[in-house]
Here is the input.
Amino acid sequence: MALWDLTAHALHDEIAARRVSVSEVVEAFLERIESHDGRIHAFLEVHAEEARRDARRLDDAIAGGAAAGPLTGIPVAVKDNICVAGRRTSCGSRILSNYVPPYDAFAVERLRAAGAVILGKTNCDEFAMGSSTEHSAFGPTRNPWDEERVAGGSSGGSAAAVALGLAAAALGSDTGGSVRQPGSFCGVAAMKPTYGTISRRGLVAFASSLDQIGPMGRDVLDCLHLYNAVCGHDPGDATSARGDHDIHPAVLEAGPRGLRVGVPRAWLGEGLDAEVAAALDRSAQALGTAGASVRDVALLDPAYSIAAYYIIATAEASSNLARYDGVRYGVRAKSAGDLASIERRTRSEGFGGEVRRRILLGTYVLSAGYYDAYYLRAQRVRRLIHDDFERAFSEVDVILLPTAPTPAFRIGEKTGDPLAMYLSDIFTVPLNLYAGPGISVPAGRSAEGMPIGMQLFAPRFGEAVMFRAARAVEETLA
Amino acid sequence: MSYEPVIGLEVHCQLLTRSKIFCGCSTEFGAAPNSQVCPVCLGHPGVLPVLNRRAVELAAMVGLALGSSVRASSVFARKNYFYPDLPKGYQISQYELPLCEGGALEIDSGGARRAVRITRLHLEEDAGKMKHAEDGSGRSFVDLNRCGTPLIEIVTEPDLRTPAEAHAFLVELRQLVQYLGASDGNMEEGSLRCDANVSVRHAGETSLGTKTEIKNLNSFRNVERALESEIERQIELLRSGERVVQATLLWDAGRERLQVMRVKEEADDYRYFPEPDLPPLTLTQVWVDALCRALPELPEARRARFVSEYALPEYDAGVLTGSRELADFYEAVAKRSGDAKLASNWVMTEVLGAVEGDARRVRALPVTPEGLGDLLALVTARTISGKIAKAVWAEMLETGIDPRAIVEKRGLVQITDPEAIRALVADVLAANAAQVAAFLAGKEQVLGHFVGQIMKASRGRANPELTNRLVREELEKRR
Here is the structure.
């Protein structure tokens, strides 16, 4: 098997046994990017020189007797809304197309400390706003399984890179499903951890109370290793959770035996693809066969989540994106005139349509006279959704549901209909409002050969049970 | 018909922390433009605020000193607006649930003490500074050093009635924050800034008139001048049957004129919402109590204690408690010298004179309060006269040398031996036979002439009272 086709943990075994050098691994992936990324457009920037330099340094260390940890020498791709010092971080936006951050994100610091090799920055919807990576200012990422289809989004570049073997693993970010949905569309494992377990420092904010960096890998175990490497308390993020949230890989050995698995059947009506529904049934069976008990669980209608989400997320975004005025960094519109017109033109020309739409929505819901009716009410709904999940998790240990109502849709299919695009996140968004962990795992394919993903939700800080159940689905259906 | 002004203040006060409120950059004033900045205070993509613990302590101390209640949970909020000196496009402030609520500050109003109620006190970050080129190029510059300097905003109830009261409030507040070490309260450097809300109404009315807000009051004088000017304008309007339009005004200190910045219809909508990057600030009662116990003695209490403990006149106590440094200096002098009133006279005239009235500079004097105390002890022990003491003081200010060493070195010890003085008196009387005759003929005022001669002969060391008495005695003997 080619090196690029191995999981990160299989690569680790090769590297640790010194059957292969880190440089060989990195070259294999760089060649793969060279030959395949032209068509898929998963990467916005490839850091080949830095990756080769890191590989040599790691090989020297290993030759000098250093032990290889789970991520030592593993080539990892990083979504372009996560800062890597000295290299462009554009967030898929024209307005930041010349922005080079002076610092590493916390997660990137941790990746480097774990010995991972950063291969480059991956494509995404502009400022992570979108579900297809079609809203990237630099063109869409194509689905490796069908180039006429989207890779999902907003972390479409990271998902496609892992699926196609352009990177062994990747970091994405998930505000309303942005790692899980592309994970599902591209057939990779993609996890949104409990809010606060991975520092947001260096993750360019879209909606601060919902954003979370998410690990993406070939399988559940790879997600677990990547999660362990980047989680942990960061005094530089006031919303970072205290304590240690590592999950020992041995927890997977327990399997799903004894777990109570809830399926929110009431959510699965109109709009659910028949093949996705069938994959859900097979996943439930697989969990049952492996020793879990599967039952229905009642949850608040996800339509409430979508409504609350698009108010809270856009409100926060309207404020978070106010800093892009072309004054201190980023692209400034070439226009004479007064300050207000420079700001207006910079922002009108620099932001794409979807970002402008969300800034306007967010500005509106925070405006005097509308705040109570929209923002405040959405926060109350969020509270109810949180409480509803807590209640559900008193009845079940994990919740099983599809990641998206359909497999990957066609490029251009939903770009003219924002609401249809928003509804492709209907099964992922509620989890961000709750703040708990969830993972999408490959659970078979459609008749057309497109991947289908299943999600497992767990209570806040319940990553261990989430991994156990996810591993069982993956083993049976992937 | 007479009109009554109603004034409320919003005071911004920079806190004396070493680093900024949400990052580690220095807060020092006067550095080269944009030299004290980092990705956080520049609002780079992906940065997050981390709250400065010391800023919370200082803000809560001011609140406690004002008698405010410190909220167990307060919430940071974003105030959204675009301006080039505001890198993030929003200011992190507090809105619905501020750090402190309630309280009052007593001010001096025409000789009487009067309480001005405090509405709230909250924490926020300062913005940068804009500088507009004056060369006609139309260019503007932004200095972001000040961005993220911790501020408290103190809002009063509309309890003030005259520009003089507004002035008194600011003086009192500045003294308080300086006492606490919470702020240097320097209006010229912008560490204390004031906006005023003002309206007028018929005397005796209880409802409020339409108010205007005056911004950019950056000196004590400007506060009074701007308020006087605006009150006069509003009264003129009402007298002529017109109405006051709600507006924000800007005080142009150079031309001593108010300019309309915007009227109500153009009022900004700041779209406040809770800051998602910072969890609510929770403070335990134990923490608040400990902070309360650690508060220094406040000006008000200290003034009262100076009157009772040192038997000082109200006036002296007021002057001496003008700053914590001066009050500390005075107390050390009083204790060392053993004469509280003498110490008060000296500190008020000689010490304040030496620092040109800037009470906070007393610590920079070469003379320690112990040194001055020793000098005054020499006076009370009659080792030197008050006049000699002034000369010694001048030398102490020059050299910082201990007063006893100066007195000893220069042989300034007072002559109190009656026989020694009597000898001097005899010499002087013998050498001034004509004046002696004049005295005996009833010309009493030549007595002073003899005393002066003796003081001169003794180089000022003869004890003046004793000299006086002995001169008279010797003259009487000659009758």
